[in-house]
Amino acid sequence: MSKYILGIETSCDETAAAVVADGREVISNIIYTQIPTHTEYGGVVPEIASREHVKKINQVIEMAIEESGKTWEELEAIAVTYGPGLVGPLLIGVSAAKAIAYAKHIPLVGVNHIEGHICANYLYESGEANSSSGIKPPYMCLVASGGHSHIVRVDDYNKYTIIGRTHDDAAGEAFDKVARAIGLGYPGGPKVDKLAREGDPHAIEFPRASVGDSPYDFSFSGIKSAVLNYLNGCEMKGIEVNRADVAASFQQAVVDVLTDHTIQAAEDEGLKTVALAGGVAANTLLRETMEDKCKERGITFNCPDFKYCTDNGAMIASAGYFEYESGARADLYLNAVPNLKIGER
Ligand code: KG4
Ligand code: ZN
Q1: What number does the ligand 1 atom closest to the CA of 11 have?
Q2: What is the pTM of this model?
Q3: What is the pLDDT of residues 252-282, one digit of tens each?
Q4: What is the rounded (10 degree) CA torsion for 276, 282, 284, 285?
Q5: Best residue for ligand 1 mutational test, from 175, 258, 288 (most atoms within 8 Å of Cβ)
């Protein structure tokens, strides 16, 4: 008998809920994105995000249940993101999950948002099992989102070891800041991705920085500063900037570093599979480049479907399923932990 988990996600600017069977089969997936609300401010405003979550959370959860065709009684557990993320938004999801768990007598599981992103690799749409949904640990996973950039060794479904990390900006943050600098607006990643297709990735040589003595760590603030310096230099010299070339060259520099470090880590650790996770995993060049480099080295490559790369409830339900199976249970004292680390319980 399948185990159905309701996943709830509110850590940033998406109010999301989903029902997933056995950690892999997505039965329903509802996402209400606040992006249009935050666009006029150029980024996420935490107070506004909290208010939007309050307005939408009940409706989003009800829709996820309704679309799944399941009853509350058929749910095995409720999984909710309790960190990392914005404290106000996190609290809305955690409170909603606790209220339902209490009222309906359903077990509760707290999920780490980043581990949720990694679990997006297991998801497939109901009735559409495919080869990539067969991915199994161990593997090396690059997690790159708006708030995080990590290379994580996935030892088991709920056992993670951080191998590399960023020393400053997250990859998605660098995309967002560069997008703003070239006048593309928020959220920057998808806009840079699109504009870069019209530019020359070798037009401008931006630095591929390594950090200290760790071959797997990242620094993106250097690349971002190099872009800003380039733009300032052009302005001072009165040279017209080719924004597509800037977008393409910046993106190429970031993708080179992300892919090289991840593959190096996989080879050094003797792992034969590499996966992508997080919002930046939606980047076209990153997906193509990682796939090509893996193929060259005989490494199996996996990445989540586009719609499961950015924040969603299905990935939380998946991570919650594996936690639940390992015996994890949260009680009604579950609280938001804004700076929760990978692997922390
Ligand atoms: O995972 P996510 O939805 O939220 C966080 O947990 O942070 O990631 C959002 C981040 C943003 O920085 C956004 O610009 C970036 O992912 N992103 C992309 C693309 N789509 C989203 N970055 C590069 N290329 C994309 N296509
Ligand atoms: Zn996220």
Answers
A1: 6
A2: 0.95
A3: 999 999 999 999 999 999 999 999 999 999 9
A4: -50
A5: 175
